[in-house]
TrEMBL record:
Belongs to the eukaryotic GSH synthase family. Residues 206-314 form the Glutathione synthase substrate-binding domain. Pathway: Sulfur metabolism; glutathione biosynthesis; glutathione from L-cysteine and L-glutamate: step 2/2. Pfam families: GSH_synth_ATP, GSH_synthase. This is glutathione synthase. One of its GO terms (cellular component) is cytosol. GO terms for molecular function: ATP binding; glutathione binding; glutathione synthase activity; metal ion binding. Keywords: ATP-binding, Glutathione biosynthesis, Ligase, Magnesium, Metal-binding, Nucleotide-binding. It comes from the Bacteria. It comes from Photobacterium aquimaris. Transmembrane segments: none annotated. InterPro entries: Glutathione_synthase, Glutathione_synthase_a-hlx, Glutathione_synthase_C_euk, Glutathione_synthase_N_euk, GSH-S_sub-bd_sf, GSH_synth_subst-bd, PreATP-grasp_dom_sf.
Length: 486
């Protein structure tokens, strides 16, 4: 296949690859219970080996920092108080946090053991190098998809080497192994067996995944569950509403689930938005009170937990901004060395709080294309770009300022050759693909619990450079993988 006819990929080949994807769980559930494959690229993106090594080195340090910040409860309450006043959802989280931990004068140590399963998302900016976009400390999913799409590219390379080579940026590139699913499962298993040992119990550990009702991203979740089952761990799934009637307390602050028994690990794939706690049948005077209290109840038990409320607060956009604005020397209070602190600082992009002064500067002096406006929301649809920023800022009241932040906009390298995106079993040539690099990590009780110092694989999501929303669910994003070049 040469460059003149490489745009043509036989429909039979596309369908074979899509069927492989569905067979291996790289899919979303549809409303009629059928499966639709996730969109993906036909060949990986390239990254310079040194850039990857730098990220690979810094991610465990970021995780160590966030892990320790998430357990510094006095700091969280003092640093995020203004944001909690400005954002109703985070106001609810802060109230839960104070309920769990007490206030500065009366500390309470909850029984839960923190299990930080984090994904740190980066873009490799053309001018400034790789920088953090955001931290994801709750519902940080798609590690299974990350590993599977790496395997999908290996499948394409083996079955259709001409197609793979034709769409590869650099034919001398080396595929990068991805153990996102395997390592995340290892971290969870380690935590589960630790809790089990604390109670001197001999039966199988139990893993509880808290999910959204009518979830379409079930296959990514089930891949993780299957990996845990292979390690001798029983897995169960419940919504917050189901848990509100099924949880109870056993001896030694053991968390018990009706019909199942003792729970060793709780993993939240829900809980990052108000709707996850909404139960209209309860007719609550305070929105979402009953179901959000499940977070408090769980933290009062001897169980490995991701995410704690502290972890969710510590990975907020405002905390990212505060850490970015601090001198690196201040990170030493959370266990980093001076060298480690400078490494962390090297990947943090500039951020600014929203104030009357910042708004005036932005409207009169800033180059608007160099900034993005973010609120505290998770997932797609929470960013404002370019000229739209001024319009959005004009609608905010002073009381709302602390819920928002300006961040340096990152412009990653565009792929040097066109690529093919496969969506709904149809091929589309994309001329200007750019990629977001998510690196997973796992820490339990402040210590790494993977084979690689806490690093746990990666997730690549690519999109056309002209698209602002790169989500696999809702945007124009496609799953991708990495190959290394020197």
């Amino acid at each position: 296949m040469n460059s003149n006819n490489k745009a043509v990929i036989a429909q039979q080949t596309i369908e074979d690859i899509c069927e492989w994807a569905i067979m291996h769980g790289v899919a979303f559930r549809q409303a009629d219970n059928s499966a639709r494959h996730c969109p993906f690229s036909i060949a990986p993106m390239t990254i310079e080996r040194e850039v990857y090594r730098h990220l690979r080195r810094v991610v465990p340090l970021l995780t160590k920092l966030i892990s320790n910040v998430s357990e510094d409860h006095v700091f969280l309450q003092s640093a995020l108080g203004d944001m909690a006043q400005a954002d109703p959802f985070f106001g609810r989280l802060m109230a839960l946090h104070q309920q769990i931990h007490g206030n500065a004068s009366q500390r309470v140590e909850p029984a839960r053991q923190p299990l930080l399963l984090m994904r740190t998302d980066f873009m490799d900016d053309r001018q400034y190098g790789a920088k953090v976009i955001e931290f994801n400390g709750i519902a940080a999913g798609m590690a299974p998809f990350g590993q599977r799409v790496t395997e999908l590219h290996q499948f394409v390379q083996y079955q259709w080497p001409e197609i793979y080579q034709a769409w590869l940026e650099n034919r001398s590139a080396t595929p990068l192994v991805n153990q996102g699913l395997t390592q995340l499962a290892l971290g969870i298993e380690t935590a589960a067996r630790s809790i089990k040992a604390d109670f001197n119990e001999q039966d199988a550990p139990v893993f509880l995944m808290v999910v959204q009702p009518n979830e379409d991203n079930v296959y990514d979740q089930h891949l993780l569950e299957a990996a845990l089952q292979q390690q001798g761990i029983r897995t169960v799934r419940r919504t917050f509403e189901q848990l509100s009637a099924q949880l109870s307390t056993g001896s030694g602050q053991r968390l018990l689930l009706e019909g199942v028994g003792a729970i060793d690990v709780v993993y939240l794939r829900a809980g990052y938005q108000y709707s996850d706690y909404c139960a209209p049948a309860l007719h609550e005077a305070v929105c979402c009170y009953t179901l959000s209290q499940m977070r408090v109840f769980i933290e009062q038990h001897h169980v490995a937990l991701n995410a704690t409320v502290g972890q969710q607060l510590a990975t907020s956009k405002t905390m990212q901004m505060l850490l970015t604005m601090m001198p690196a020397q201040q990170y030493l209070r959370w266990g980093l060395t001076a060298v480690e602190a400078e490494l962390v600082k090297s990947v943090l992009a500039e951020m600014k709080p929203i104030t009357a002064t910042t708004i005036a500067w932005f409207n009169t002096q800033a180059i608007k294309a160099e900034w993005v406006l973010k609120n505290q929301g998770e997932g797609g649809g929470h960013c404002v770009f370019g000229d739209d920023i001024s319009a959005t800022l004009a609608t905010l009241t002073a009381a709302e300022y602390d819920a928002w932040a300006l961040m340096q906009r990152l412009y990653p390298h565009e792929r040097e050759v066109p690529t093919v995106a496969i969506r709904d079993a149809q091929a589309t040539v994309v001329m200007d693909l750019v990629s977001e690099i998510g690196l997973f990590s796992a820490y339990f009780n402040g210590k790494p619990v993977t084979d690689f110092d806490g690093y746990a694989g990666y997730l690549i999501r690519s999109k056309p450079a002209t698209e602002n929303e790169g989500g696999i669910h809702s945007g124009k994003g496609i799953l991708d993988s990495l190959v290394l070049i020197d």
